[in-house]
Design a protein that fits this description.
Strand order of the largest sheet: 1-2-6-5-4-3
Mean pLDDT: 81
Number of domains: 1
Strand content: 25-35%
Number of strands: 6
Shape: globular
Number of helices: 5
Structural class: alpha+beta
Distance between the termini: 18 Å
Order of helices and strands: HHEEHHEEEEH
Low-confidence stretches: 133-153
Helix content: 25-40%
Amino acid sequence: MTDIYDEFQDDLTDYLETFKVVEGQTGLLVFVNSEIVGLDIISNKSAYKVLHKKLVESYAMDSMLQDNKKTSTNINLEAAHKFIEGISCCDESKNESVGYGFDHRFASDLYIGSALVFNNELIHASFFKSLEVEDGEIGGMARSTVRENLRKI
């Protein structure tokens, strides 16, 4: 993984320069080539500020590793509203977290996500477009790094 990171270091620096954290920001809705690929929300502004770099780098690496040559920069607010509306219609399951709080899992034919809630406060939530489920897979998440980690389980 370090070799890949080193190979794309200049590109990652460009992404971080382009997508700087905004004062008071607590999340990001990510578009790649005009398509929404994910949403991350952190409950605390200062915690988000610390995690922003890792989140941007993660989405950027996924985009670069997909080697998609299309470079559209259109951001469609209607698509953003549809994404938010779609994730709110997901089926939900709730289980005690390994650590503190409760782990909420969300799934539908179009979206998949998870959220950590502690003392009825959202700590972190992530949502992605579902991909077509391949044979032998539990589910399809749009972020390739997450998919790779699931395959190792």
